From TrEMBL:
EC number assigned by the record: 2.1.1.107
EC primary class: transferase
Lipid metabolism as UniProt keyword: no
Keyword flag Coiled coil: no
SUPFAM superfamilies: Tetrapyrrole methylase
Domain Tetrapyrrole methylase: 5-212
UniProt pathway: Porphyrin-containing compound metabolism; siroheme biosynthesis; precorrin-2 from uroporphyrinogen III: step 1/1
Superkingdom, natural source: Bacteria
Protein name: uroporphyrinogen-III C-methyltransferase
Signal peptide: none
Record's keyword terms, sorted: Methyltransferase, Porphyrin biosynthesis, S-adenosyl-L-methionine, Transferase
Gene Ontology process terms (BP): methylation
Family in the record: Belongs to the precorrin methyltransferase family.
Length: 255
């Protein structure tokens, strides 16, 4: 039977992919791979599977969304099973919803295999829970990418006092921080940015909102990164402070 899957590959670390995802990858005839997917996950593909990169990083030209769906349909109509592999979770800022709609419109059922989204895994990788009873009653996943009419209402988001987890926010970080401060968010609100989370090259910056954009620039962080703004980030700040004071305490000079 011909099958179609929309699969989340998780945030980077291969071990954070689900068993269901590895099983589906092992069945697919064709695998269409997005940006941000760790190529190591392809170890679960069949040796004879055909692998197509459709992401825009790594020197590959980006394939327009319609082109991706057209390719999937072509393979499916030819009787080949197709796995569409996306970073994180396929339904969180991954355009998975659009691809599902397009496949449904063509009369094709697609199985969704959830993945661990970067917005949860990246903060967790440096000890930040996205909710915590002392800090936040909820969490908002938001894109920092939009500009103009699609710009999120940062003032309204600030007013919720919930954890803000911002995807695709690095290029516009200055504007976002400025908008949150202008909306009355406190300058001492804890913040973190985590680049390439759960991968060997993971790096991060921790700071207060007032100095955050400078701290991120100083650390030289870029995409892909998750930005976390809110009291929960104090857990990582406190840990960093404790680590640096225990460094001092254990150094012979400090005695
Ligand atoms: N579907 C994906 C998100 C795709 S949008 C998911 O659920 O995770 C792409 C954005 O995700 C990036 O710009 C970045 O903000 C974030 N991202 C993805 N992988 C990441 C990683 N390993 N570390 C930090 N951020 C990541």
């Amino acid at each position: 039977m011909t099958r179609a899957w929309l699969i989340g590959a998780g945030p980077g670390d291969v071990e954070l992919m689900t068993l269901k995802a590895t099983r589906a990858l092992g069945q697919a005839d064709v695998i269409l791979v997005d940006d941000l997917v760790n190529p190591d996950v392809l170890q679960f593909a069949r040796a004879d599977a055909s692998i197509v990169y459709v992401g825009k990083r790594g020197g590959h030209p980006s394939t327009p969304q319609e082109g991706i769906v057209a390719q999937m349909l072509e393979h499916l109509h030819a009787g080949r099973s197709v796995a569409r592999l996306k970073g994180g979770d396929p339904f969180v800022f991954g355009r998975g919803g659009e691809e599902q709609q397009a496949l449904h419109a063509a009369g094709i059922e697609v199985e969704i295999i959830s993945g661990i989204t970067a917005g949860i895994a990246a903060p967790a990788a440096i000890g930040i829970p996205v909710t915590h009873r002392d800090h936040a009653q909820g969490v908002i996943f938001v894109t920092g990418h939009g500009a103009g009419s699609s710009e999120p209402d940062w003032g309204a988001l600030a007013a919720t006092h919930m954890t803000l987890v911002i995807y695709m926010g690095m290029r516009r970080l200055n504007d976002i921080v400025g908008a949150l401060l202008a909306a009355g968010m406190r300058a001492d609100t804890p913040c973190a940015a985590i680049e390439s989370a759960t991968r060997p090259e993971q790096r991060h910056a921790l700071s207060r909102l007032g100095e955050f954009a400078d701290a991120v620039a100083r650390a030289g962080l870029g995409s892909p990164a998750i930005v976390v703004i809110g009291g929960v980030a104090s857990l990582a700040l406190a840990r960093a402070a404790a680590a640096s004071s225990s460094d001092t305490a254990s150094s012979p000079d400090a005695k």
